[in-house]
């Protein structure tokens, strides 16, 4: 397969202008040039159709980033477009409530096991923050135990390395526990008896829950009078229609959904049991665009499409084929690399000679894939529009890219192979 010559000049021109005007050059750090191979990746995209995207220079890619997980049916999906454009003729945001709020709440409550009531917002961060506020209001406690990433708001970002600008006072209110290490949560409860309002966690990342971990977290939370919250922003609607809670059979008190729920339109939801959700009558959770109608229409349409079609089975099937394909290619080529995680969203892990993860090998792999028309991000995300042809082409590209990585791994240095900068992590340490 020839490595096609790509012109990226328009991308780089826009980037040069953005560097003068937009700090970070992006509104979402996970889209920014520094987390990809800067110099080789396109920076600006302007079109998507199905599972493919086009950059501003006209180059086409099979996309496995999927709008950071927000696209589940496919880009520019005709049914989403129809739902949005039909509503667009009527209104985008009105002065009083639109009936779609009721319809979407009903749909969510029929679909998600823990959902008896629902409130809507725009970003995943809005929904996780609302869940935490509800738990604090309900328990009249302030401390939170968490596991995973839950958004950009102060209550959570204080626990990350990039917490400049967040009041230090919040530090004492947040406690991180480790996935599959129940003892780390037990310690938090022991050291903060009667003070933890909620345990919030991503039900799963790429590592599967072991030894009844999710059940144990739930039990521990409840034994200590804390609410148990699932952050389903990433798992929502991709793992199962009812989220990871349905897939694992562990039902939380509250859950936050976002990303894929409207196939790219901006909407999120906090859902949960009535006895907890009702306190929203007293807490402050309100925003101008919370009931914006185009996104409500898109969400109703997306969830109905997921129910009507075999979209989720397709996503699992195609993801499994890619995972299996990657693993067998790696074995065949003699590289210590593995696709880990669940088929709808998995991670490509490369190990160095010492057996530990080598992110430089991964960076080189990403470079070699994008040059050949496959756009990879942190995790590989599958949508309903990934076709058999996409899978076949991707595996062909992966084979070529893995062979380049193998040469670099054998030589013990990726530097001679890099044509751009190594991807950087979003949460790099900020010196203060
Ligand atoms: C698990 C999880 N929770 C919360 C969020 C925050 O969502 P948003 O970026 O829409 O605010 C994200 C975003 O990546 C996420 O992955």
Task: Explain the overall architecture.
There is one protein chain. The chain has helices spanning 9-21, 66-69, 78-88, 100-111, 124-139, 154-157, 182-191, 213-223, 244-248, 274-277, 293-308, 311-333, 359-371, 388-411; strands at 45-49, 52-55, 60-63, 117-121, 143-147, 174-176, 196-201, 227-231, 254-257, 268-272, 337-342, 345-350, 374-375, 380-381. With 432 residues, it is α/β, with parallel strands linked by helices. The strands form 3 sheets. It has a 7-stranded mixed sheet, with helices on both faces. A 4-stranded mixed sheet has the order 1-2-3-13. It has a 3-stranded antiparallel sheet with strand order 11-12-14. Helix 3 packs antiparallel against helix 11 (293-308), helix 4 runs parallel beside helix 11 (293-308) and helix 12 runs parallel beside helix 14. The N and C termini lie far apart (48 Å). The model has no long low-confidence stretch (mean pLDDT 96). Residues 123-125, 128, 148-151, 202, 231, 233-234, 258 line the site of pyridoxal-5'-phosphate. Pyridoxal-5'-phosphate (PLP) binds at residues 123-125, 128, 148-151, 202, 231, 233-234, 258.
């Amino acid at each position: 397969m020839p490595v096609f010559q790509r012109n990226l000049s328009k991308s780089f021109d826009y980037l040069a202008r953005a560097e003068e005007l937009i700090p970070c050059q992006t509104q979402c750090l996970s889209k920014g040039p520094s987390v990809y191979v800067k110099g080789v990746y396109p920076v600006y995209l302007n079109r998507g159709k199905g599972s493919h995207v086009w950059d501003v220079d006209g180059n086409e890619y099979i996309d496995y980033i999927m709008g950071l997980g927000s696209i589940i049916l496919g880009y520019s999906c005709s049914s989403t477009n129809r739902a949005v454009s039909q509503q667009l003729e009527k209104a985008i945001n009105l002065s009083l409530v639109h009936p779609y709020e009721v319809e979407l709440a009903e749909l969510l409550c029929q679909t998600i096991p823990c959902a008896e009531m629902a409130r809507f917002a725009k970003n995943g961060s809005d929904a996780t923050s609302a869940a935490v506020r509800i738990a604090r209001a309900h328990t009249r406690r302030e401390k939170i135990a968490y596991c995973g990433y839950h958004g950009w708001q102060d209550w959570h970002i204080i626990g990350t390395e990039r917490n400049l600008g967040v009041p230090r006072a919040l530090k004492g209110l947040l406690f991180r526990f480790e996935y599959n290490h129940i003892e780390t949560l037990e310690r938090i409860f022991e050291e903060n008896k009667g003070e933890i309002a909620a345990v919030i966690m991503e039900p799963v990342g790429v590592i599967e829950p072991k030894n009844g971990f999710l059940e144990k977290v739930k039990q521990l939370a409840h034994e200590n009078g804390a609410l148990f919250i699932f952050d389903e922003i990433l798992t929502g609607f991709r793992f199962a229609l009812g989220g990871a809670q349905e897939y694992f059979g562990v039902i939380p008190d509250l859950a936050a959904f976002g990303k894929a729920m409207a196939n790219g339109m901006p909407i999120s939801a906090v859902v949960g049991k009535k006895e907890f959700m009702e306190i929203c009558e007293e807490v402050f959770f309100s925003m101008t665009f919370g009931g914006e109608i185009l996104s409500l229409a898109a969400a109703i349409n997306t969830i109905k499409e997921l129910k009507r079609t075999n979209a989720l089975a397709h996503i699992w099937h195609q993801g499994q084929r890619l995972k299996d394909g990657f693993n067998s290619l790696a074995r065949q080529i003699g590289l210590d690399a593995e696709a880990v995680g669940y088929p709808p969203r998995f991670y490509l892990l490369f190990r160095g000679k010492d057996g530990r993860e080598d992110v430089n090998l991964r960076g080189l792999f990403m470079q070699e894939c994008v040059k050949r028309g496959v756009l990879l991000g942190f995790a590989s995300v599958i949508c309903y529009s990934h076709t058999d042809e996409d899978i076949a082409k991707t595996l062909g590209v992966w084979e070529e890219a893995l062979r380049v990585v193998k040469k670099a791994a054998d030589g013990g240095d990726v530097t001679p192979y890099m044509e751009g900068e190594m991807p950087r992590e979003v949460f790099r340490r900020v010196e203060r």
